[in-house]
Design goal:
With 406 residues, the chain is of the alpha/beta class. The chain has helices at residues 48-59, 67-80, 85-97, 110-113, 117-125, 129-143, 186-195, 207-214, 224-230, 234-239, 258-266, 277-289, 291-316, 321-349, 351-364, 371-374, 378-384, 386-394, and strands spanning 3-5, 18-22, 28-32, 103-105, 156-163, 166-172, 177-178, 183-184, 200-202, 219-222, 246-249, 252-256, 401-405. A hairpin with a 5-residue loop joins strand 2 (18-22) and strand 3 (28-32).
Length: 406
């Protein structure tokens, strides 16, 4: 069974209060609503004014029928079924992927939150143990020369407490628990948990454990960022006697609109070139103009000149060898700067190339970010149709890196 775990407990509203759309003119639009800060997403009541504001903004962006109406219907019909902001997301996701068998779980529902009780009670018994294990794993990674993804500050537990619609981190000083506003005994927190199981929620380092505690999970499908921090959670899984699932990297897909496909074919580009598009652009322009060979020949001549100079200096005064090496490095940097500036000059003179590479950047690296990390799927629903896009994605293999040509 495929299960989607909704992050309705999260309070980072700045991550979910906006969406980016790219219109037919290659202009990027940020659509946003004003969400209350520090409030769990599942506790934010959906406002009719937000739905109206978003649909009005979309309607003004020049998208065509029938896909405009199809997309707006998805947004408005989901809103009619929703009480909270996270409900709105759930309703849209269910309409899109429910027919394919996706099960959606909302941890803010009381019936689900009640199931986390054994994990939270164990955390209240040893408030800093899971944090210690996460930090130990972080130190081990850094010893191996790798970067840790998560860490816990001194006194920080892996639990949050909701107070007056605000989600606050629980800290422990050895005797009492405290937040920014209040302090609590273990017994008081236990009482809060008894009355409202959803009042206490897990931090990022504990959330996967609560998830896999209530579900017998074979594999967890994660993105690149999540993949890194799961490596720090093995000890926390063991602490709570929860079997750690297999970690399956999710597929990555880049939507390639017809003009983008033609441009990539023209310049002989593939998906692996996207991350280095700026360098690829420079090399392609210099190559097409004939300047690439000139710069390469000059660099070879430069290296030969310094090699000859170095041999002579070694015989004259070996103490000057470092000076020659530094001069060579400086000249190579200068050579690269000239190469980059020459490519820019060529781009400015050739408006066709300029516009084509600008289109690639807008489509594939909007704001310098991978397409899938910035653009909302509605950017493609509005251009090509909701059902058409979903079908294309559902036909992709389970794992790998794909270009989705439309």
């Amino acid at each position: 069974l495929a299960v989607f775990w909704v992050a309705s407990q999260d309070h980072d509203t700045e991550e979910v209060d906006h969406a980016y759309l790219l219109d037919f003119k290659e202009e990027l639009h940020k659509l946003s609503v004003d969400l209350p800060a520090e409030t769990p997403i599942g506790k934010i009541a959906l406002q009719d004014s937000w739905v109206e504001e978003i649909t009005n903004q979309i309607s003004r962006l020049g998208y065509n029928e029938p896909f405009l109406s199809e997309s707006l219907e998805l947004i408005t019909s989901a809103a009619k079924l929703s009480e909270s902001y996270s409900d709105w997301f759930i309703a849209m996701l269910y309409q899109l992927l429910g027919p394919y068998g996706l099960i959606i779980i909302d941890p803010m529902q009381r019936e689900v939150a009640e199931l986390f009780r054994p994990i939270f009670e164990a955390e209240l018994d040893k408030p800093l143990e899971s944090s210690r294990l996460i930090n130990k794993a972080a130190a081990d990674l850094e010893t191996m020369g790798l970067k840790a993804q998560i860490g816990r500050a001194e006194g920080a537990s892996n639990l949050f407490l909701e107070q007056n619609h605000s989600r606050q981190l629980l800290k422990f000083d050895g005797k009492m628990f405290y937040t920014a506003d209040n302090q609590y005994s273990k017994e008081e927190l236990q009482s809060i948990l008894d009355k409202n199981p959803a009042a206490i929620t897990p931090a990022a380092g504990l959330r996967p454990i609560t998830q896999d505690f209530i579900l017998p999970t074979v594999a967890t499908v994660v993105g690149p960022g999540e993949l890194a921090y799961f490596s720090q959670l093995k000890g926390v899984f063991e602490l709570h006697n929860v079997t750690m699932p297999l970690i399956q990297p999710r597929l990555t897909a880049t939507v390639l609109e017809p003009p983008v496909v033609r441009i990539m074919q023209k310049f002989e580009l593939d998906l692996n070139d996207i991350a280095q598009l700026e360098k690829i652009k420079q090399d392609k322009l210099l190559e097409l103009s004939g300047y690439q060979d000139i710069f390469n020949e000059n660099l070879v001549d430069l290296e030969k000149s310094f090699e000859s100079m170095l041999n002579q200096i070694k015989q004259l005064d070996p103490t000057l060898v470092k000076t020659v090496c530094k001069a060579e490095i400086y000249m190579q940097k200068t050579h690269n700067i000239l190469k980059t500036k020459s490519a820019r000059a060529l781009l400015e003179k050739n408006k066709v190339y300029h516009n084509q590479f600008k289109r690639l950047e807008n489509q594939l690296l909007p704001q310098g970010t991978a397409q899938e990390r910035l653009l909302s799927p509605f950017s493609f629903f509005l251009k090509f149709g909701v059902e058409n896009i979903i079908k294309e994605f559902m036909d992709l293999p389970f794992e790998g890196n794909f270009g989705l040509e439309l």
